[in-house]
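Encode chain A's predicted structure.
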Amino acid sequence: MEKKLRNPAAEVVITCLSEKYLKNEVMLDDHCFVRIISGEIKITQSDSSRIFQPGDTILLPRRQLSTVVQYPKDDKPYQCVLIMLKTKRLREYYAANPVEKNTAHVPAVKAFDRHPLLESYFASLIPYLEFHEELPEKLVTLKIEEALTILRTIDQGVDAFLSDFSEPGKIDLADFMEQNYMHNMTLDKFSFLTGRSLTTFKRDFSRIYGATPQRWLTEKRLKLAHYLLSANQQKPVEIFREVGFENLSHFSYAFKKQFGYAPKEV
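Encoded structure for chain A:
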């Protein structure tokens, strides 16, 4: 992956991916404001899956689990502008610009319709990012505050995302796992997202399911794979990542061990 800005901690960056395909399980520590320049991005959360194309503008909320797949399109690599809305900066912004009424927080990716304010904003920002030097701090602050002001102008509900500084608490483990088992994450991440230490997560999991998390995850993913292969007539190469496996050979081995025949025989 190529990044035109060298500092991975930068809050405003432009990225360019030369790979044919890139998939990540993403759980952001900060909100991420994104404008797609070229290529496509598919974002899957527990109950939705959406594809975004050049010109689309989205806001990914922090602390929400997503599977992100980036593709080239029309002989162009995936390229986007990323603006990280860090919690410290948001606290300072909302201290100076308080929210009159905060609606309920909806934990899902937000997509914004085309708007002249968004178009003019990115038209002014992208030329800065085409230089190899990092942006001066004062300019970063100005451009992020400009983005926040525009977002609040075109979407009155955006404060529900941006002014919510609460941290995840202990949630219903069974409900979370049933919705998110297909995400290929470590047990550490699963435990964190359910508000537990790893030890507590394993203990609670065993009490609920009577099995280890890894065995349960494998069986659930294979059952989903079998359904996709049989009901949707999809091919193994099309679904192994979707159900949480990192590579096709491991998926095929686990599938045959579980069901007694290879995925291609379904």
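The first helix runs from residue 87 to 96.
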